[in-house]
Amino acid sequence: MKISPSTNGDSLGHRSASLRRRHVVASLFKALCIGFTLFAVSVLGLLIAQVGADGLPWLDAQFLNNFPSRFPEKAGVKSALYGTLWVVSLTALIALPMGVLAAIYLEDYAPASRLTRVIEINIANLAGVPSIVYGILGLAIFVRFFGLERSVLAGAMTMSLLILPVIIISSKEAIRAVPSSIRLAAYAVGATQWQVVRSHVLPAAIPGILTGVILALSRAIGETAPLIMIGALTYVAFTPEGPMDEFTALPIQIFNWASRPQAEFHELAAAGIIVLLAVLLTMNALAVLIRYKGTQK
Amino acid sequence: MTLLAASKYRWGEAILRQLFFVCAFISVLTTVIVIGILAVETSSFFEEVSVTDFLFGTEWRPLLEPKAYGILPLLGGTMLIVVGSSIVALPVGLACAVYLSEYASDRARNIIKPVLEVLAGIPTVVYGYFAISFVTPGLRLVFDDVQIFNAASAAIVVGVMVLPMVASLCDDALRSVPSSLREGAYSVGATSYEVTARVVVPAALSGIFAAFVLAVSRAIGETMAVTLAAGATPNLTLNPLESIQTMTAYIVQVSLGDTPSGGLAYKTLFAVASVLFTITLVMNLLANKVMRKYQEVYE
Amino acid sequence: MINSENAVLEARDVTIRYGGHAAVKNVNLSIYEKKITAIIGPSGCGKSTLLRSLNRMNDFIDHVTQDGEILYRDTNLYDEGVDPVEVRLHMGMVFQRPNPFPKSIFRNVAWGPTINGLPGDINLRVERALKQAALWEEVKDRLDDSALNLSGGQQQRLCIARALAMEPEVILMDEPCSALDPVSTARIEDLLFELKQNYTIVIVTHNMQQASRVSDYTAFMESGALIEYGDTDQVFTRPKQKRTEDYVTGRFG
User: Fold this and answer.
1) What is the reported pTM?
2) Among A residues 187-216, those touching chain B with beta carbons less than 8 Å apart
């Protein structure tokens, strides 16, 4: 049975009565999406304004160079800032290679076996495990069992475990996003698996991987709970000199100040937040730059 | 390539493969150890407190007399935060993602994506600060019986905290839908709403759902913002304007305090952590299962 | 001979530019009712761009400008008051690579008519479209299966059914067989002979054999310009332009 196409009187022949309503719906939908996006952006503005208003008056060279103190005028973030930098650097050193290599394995090497499934499920689960549980883990394994006490290394290893799943997942996504046609073409000219990965897959995936790593590290910087669990002291009046030294960290210092009832300490917390955000902004700017350059190709 | 060189390649390949495998296997190891620690301490806890008392008791007072070990108030507190934050994060996050991937010009995208990334990168303790310095006072202006520490404040900021992650993941999911699919939908006379909401979003559903589940997981495990803003009063209530305590905030409280290790009070930490861990584990397993059902391959 | 009274679509002095580069230059072309018109030419000659301008699919590309007119019966499709969504109700499109929705086979075909509220029983409509696309027998027992489980050739026929279900007047096909194996290609070419009885078809193809087998009229484009347009027989056996002769005899492209 054949259908004959309908040709109505006038040239375009209105065929769908509800078009006007549907266009209105489309416009409303678009407006809704834009509106929600503006909301999200404006919250950021509000947050920065609030933090800036509270904290900027306290932000000076003295603040950056002093150690915490009972007296708000004399208090500073030096030990916290150094502690944070130490922990983050070590965490990056440990977690980045492990995470990327694990992702490479899972995307390009792993057979479709039961074990692979178990590993992947594990990673997905671990990404959702609350950071405080990692703190418990860090306490039991690194602090007690390995005897690292409350050192920078214990903190970094705990943090590495925390962000490892996230790095693996985002690296996997980045690697998977590389079209298999690229791999197939490389294999077709006789490359080994590692050559294919190294010269074709990884370069294409690097922007995505790096973005994911930097975001993961950003999360690590701001994590307080695990460090509290492993006992990073809140009153530390020195900067770490080596991985085995005790330390404190910016978010812990901020938390400490914010928990106190006095308004000055709240404002100090805000000042500490500004420092923390400055560090994070630098890292995020780096991530954006890398992603931008990556999509330029 | 000579045969000798070829076999050297194969050797190197095998070693690399093993190395990569070990890195991936560490995840399994981590899970095993976590479960081990929690299990050991929790069963020790259950030698002194009955399981039913723990799971169904409505009073949580492990540190003061009369002692009570019912976890429901902590669970209730956590759930209030989860529901409240989801109401904020899920619709807004998805809407942002839709805007970014379907409507935004390249220029708008290049501004807003980084903004969202910054929002995502803001540490939880900062959101906690924002809750106590801006949101709670704001709520008190609007409503009458808002306590200084309250669940709503924390839930709102946790929602904002999680929103960029939802937006980003949903954006990735939406963008991975090939443009040929959109073209096909437009070609049968569909409006942008129909193409976006009825074809593209459903096509990206697995990624979107995964984003939602991760968001809820984050909210459940969120510690610092709720510790700062929601309070330290275990309180089984549906009223978000009251002070509550979440499971995570309780764990922080114990580890910051002088609770002697080895005592029953100390073991409550692990018992609560076990519940926390189990809930997030179950959720993740569920999410993965759903994702696999809806998985579509485009290449 | 070409008789402009049966022209369904007419491109008049159409020039289409991406940024600075002109993909289509001053093309004048008429498409005739219930005929198959093939547009051939080397890669990058603008044939796809021209095709997509017929159903306003170029609207989705940034920085596209267009001069000239595209008339569908008596209306310029690019006039102010013309709704592009409505234009596509009259022109169906089949794309180079099969692009079925990740939905069931049934939903793929039914989706367009449903959102447009086209009259009649949707089940009948779907069945007719699938029969017209010569796919019904293969899928009638599994209409709820995912369309992505079909083979490439089947998916493309599904996409044809999807377009047919809208009962358009014109069907635009952009190299519909280029991603398919020869057997699937042959099936679709057979289909075109059937469809021609009820639909006006414009098919872009780089396969000259296909064009000469299937079409009534052939337009040859090169570097954005329309070099020659006429009866398929004439274009392939007695081309009027030297460039045409070079192309169809395989001297380039």
Assistant:
1) 0.80
2) 192-194, 215
